[in-house]
Amino acid sequence: EDESRIIGGKPCSINQRPFQVALIKRGQILCGGSLVGAQWVLTAAHCKQPVRVLIGTDTLREGTGELRSISRLQVHPSYNPRKNDNDFMLLKLNRPVHFSSNIKKIRLATRCPTDGMRCSVSGWGTTKSPGAKLPQNLQCAAIQAFGRNECTRAYGNAITPNMFCAGVPEGGIDSCQGDSGGPLVCDGVLQGVVSWGMAVCGRRGHPGVSSNICRAVPWIRRTI
C-alpha cells in the first residue's frame, strides 16, 4: 500500500476545477487540495510537510497562478497515521483569495456517498503506474463510488467508516501517487479527499480509497 497516493484521465482546465490547488514543496508537487473557504484548504493529513499552496492554475509551470504560504495547519483530532483513518488536514492561507472564474471554493458533501454514484477526481499525480510520469497539466478522471462491501472485499478491515472507495469496475482509471489530498467530487460537492491505495494504481478490484467528508463536516465547520 502506498500512502502518498491519475491514471487513465485526461487534461482539464482550472475553470472546470476552480477549487483545485497544488501543495508545492521545493518546487515539486507534493499533494493536491481543495479550497473550502476564502482562506482555507482541505487536504490529507499525511501530506503534513512544509508546503506552499498554488491556486488558480491548471499548470505547474513557473509564474502561473497564485502562490500562498500557510499561517496555520490543523490536523483532524482523530487522525490515525498507522491506519490512514480520518486522513484530513485544514490549511489556513496567510491571506484570503479573491474568488474569480478560476478560483472558487467548493461545497462540502453532507450526505455520505452511495454505491454507483458518479464522481470525478483530479490532480497532478503520476499518470503512469508502475513507474512515475508527472504531468505539467491538471488531469481529471471520471470514476464512481463503490459500496462498503466492494471496498471491504478489496481491503478487508483496513476500511473504516471514515473511508470509501472509488474507481471503475474494470480498473485502469484511478488516483495515484501525488494526487493525495486532492478533491473527489460527486454531484458537484466535495465528497472525498484522496487518501491511499495500492502501490500500483488502477488495478482491477483495488479502487482508490478516499477520506469520507460527510463524516468530517462538523469538525471542518468548527475549524473554519
TrEMBL record:
SUPFAM superfamilies: Trypsin-like serine proteases (SSF50494). PROSITE patterns: TRYPSIN_DOM, TRYPSIN_HIS, TRYPSIN_SER. Keywords: Disulfide bond, Hydrolase, Protease, Serine protease. It comes from the Eukaryota. CDD domains: Tryp_SPc. GO terms for cellular component: secretory granule. Residues 6-224 form the Peptidase S1 domain. GO terms for molecular function: serine-type endopeptidase activity. GO terms for biological process: proteolysis. InterPro entries: Peptidase_S1_PA, Peptidase_S1_PA_chymotrypsin, Peptidase_S1A, Trypsin_dom, TRYPSIN_HIS, TRYPSIN_SER. Belongs to the peptidase S1 family. PANTHER family: KALLIKREIN-1, KALLIKREIN-RELATED. This is Kallikrein-14.
